Description:
4 helices, acyltransferase activity, transferring groups other than amino-acyl groups, ribosomal protein, acyltransferase, transferase
Amino acid sequence: MDIRIASELDYPALRSLYLESRRKSFHWADREEMNLEDFDRHTVGEFIILAEEDGKILGFSSLNLPDNFIHNLFVHPDFSGKGIGSQLVNASIKKMDKPIELKCVSKNQKDMEFYENNGWKKVIEEGKPKEKYWVMVYE
């Protein structure tokens, strides 16, 4: 598996991965409101790293480099649990200065456990009642 910087040529596959991943794992959100264009809106100006094997994109992370912030981390549902997320997190950490922050939706217990198992600490829970998330830090 290769970890590399995404190019615009990767965007069609990244859009599909983002949509499919969110529709399968965001059980608390309205799937019908999600669309392919969300990827472009949710990653504007961000540095994108992807995991690829045999020409297939398996996952990506999008980073806000000035703020040392991981904005998105998604692995294609068919490849979950194979270490791809850990490799993307490690590549993201190497690209930024510590401390690094991210936000994880409070209802997303699977991802919360993933981050905690990879050295991230919960700092504070924020957000509106139905949109709570944890700010997490890696030092």
